[in-house]
Amino acid sequence: LQAQGIPTRQDAPVGGIPVDSEYIIFVIDTSGSMQRYAWPQMLRKMEEILDLYPRVRGMQVMSDEGDYLFSTYRAGQWIPDTPARRKAVLGALSSWKTFSDSSPVEGIERAIRAFAAPDKKVSIYVLGDEFTGSSIEDVVQRIRRINPKDARGVPRARIHGVGFPTQYASSGAVSPTGIRFASLMRILCAENGGAFVGL
Q1: Those residues with Cβ within 8 angstroms of residue 140's Cβ, 6 or more apart along the chain or in another chain
Q2: Where are the alpha helices (DSSP H) in 71-192?
Q3: Is the pTM of this model over 0.85?
């Protein structure tokens, strides 16, 4: 709808999800499958997400392991939101290589612990393709403990997810780790006020 030029309020929900966050964090799967098959698309999607937030008070970019894109902005430190800094983030990401175990859990937990706060509107965007962990239920329980909801049912940090289709075989079958990522993120997003989009 936005692409068709239909006028909307700046704070109108997108896909039914409010985009009123003042701070945004990207947790990005840097695994081989993402690097080989989804990296250009991931960069485009990240730019589209940033466009939904013309101005925020701060942003952060982390790997699925919880490593920071910029060593100068680490735990508790927000990357300033300027046009030049947004360009620098996308530029640095284009060649970012860091270890990944193909599971977003460590990054999500580190993002919540380091940045979520009752006095801040924070959204976490998870961009990935696989979950190699042993238990979805265990992850859901852990996130419930560290991302509590207030009296209105609003979580400390909103969690969104974007799933990339790298796990399809030529036969059309999907790998178990790809299915598990979609299952995990659908639950986490539903429980934490966000939306999961499978591309």
Answers
A1: 184, 187, 188, 191
A2: 83-93, 105-115, 136-146, 176-191
A3: yes
